[in-house]
C-alpha cells in the first residue's frame, strides 16, 4: 500500500513537467520560425484579416524598404472567402484588389507563388510596409525555404508601387528654418 502511495505522489510530481515539454509539432514550428527569421522574415502571432476569425495565426512578413512602399491588396484562399469576392488565380480571391494594375512581372510572380503555397496558407496581404503570408505552418523549414526566393522576387516587383504616394520632406526647409532661427537670435 505504501508503494502505491509513493507511485501516485511521483506521478503527481512528474505530470506538470511532462506538460512543459514541447510537443513534436511545437519543436518543428520553433525550428521553422528560427530558420526563416534568420533569412530576414519577421514572424508574429496576430489576428489575421479574416471575418469571424477568433484567435491568432502566424504572420510571416517581408518588409518593403522605407523608400519603396508596396501596394495595398488582400488575397484570400477560396476555402475562407465569400463567393461574392472576385476570383483571381488558383483558388484565391481578391478581398481588396490593388487600386492600380500590378506590373506584369509582379502579376507573374504572384501567380507562381499562389500556385505553390501549401493548403494551409489562407491570406496573402500587401500593405505599404510589408508583404505578409498568413498560414498554419504545416511544413518544415527546409520545404518553406523553397518559397523564399519567390517571396523576395514578388516583394522586389511590388516595391515602389504604393497606391498613395508617400510625402517626402521638402528640400531646403531645414536650412531656411535654421537661418530664420539664427537671424532671430542674432547669431548670424
Automatic annotation (TrEMBL):
Residues covered by region (Disordered): 162-188
Biased segments, Polar residues type: 178-188
Domain of life: Bacteria
Protein name, entry field: Preprotein translocase subunit YajC
Organism: Halomonas campaniensis
